[in-house]
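Please, structure for the following, as tokens.
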Amino acid sequence: MREFTSFGTEHLLWLLAGICSSIIWVIAGKRIGRTGQGEYRQRQLGLLMALIPAILWIGGSIWLVLYEDPIPKTLALPFHVCYFLNLVMPFMLWRKSYFIFEITYFITMAGTLQALLTPDLDFGFPDMINVRYFVVHIGLMMSTFYAVFVYGFRPAWKSLWKAILWTNIYMVFVTPINLLFDTNFMYVRAKPPVASMLDYLGDWPWYLLTGQVMLLVLFTIVLLPFLFVKPKKVNA
């Protein structure tokens, strides 16, 4: 079994594939917007785009449970925040839910981007774990870009505080799940085994508190491009 190497050829090819696919979906969505049924067709395309990684995650989980022994619970349960959002994105794009976008934008741009640059991954391509990991995380970025560039959604300061609130609510939600299944979703019980920004925030449990500051800083950084752009008025 091939091992995964960060910033090796395979990693760089995955990142390039993510950039190219994001551009293609956005261009397709914007072109469809010029047709007679533009908005409805845009929603259909967005739903299709978001369903691909969601279906792959579900199918990959079933395959891992059936054919991998033992299989880590963190790979079979959908409670890593990126895996959970992966199942939410089809609903967000189909319903054009600005409320969901407000939360997912910050988590995706600040968290998923880091996950793509510093993958918590041992297995190389074409292992199912490898394929599922990158398709899911790239899919989150594509869904976010689609909402921004095709739907015209824009985050605001109030969106940042909503995202922080719901991130903490989700952390509370997964804590009993971690205790029940002996898992470490959202790295509540320990830092990830690979290098990450949490390494600079102290030991457990202090990094859970100092991490709030990091969360605010990262969310503010990804908000900067929109600080002088009026958010789109849409129904939640």
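The chain has a mean pLDDT of 85. Helices lie at 9-32, 38-67, 73-76, 81-95, 98-117, 128-149, 157-181, 206-223.
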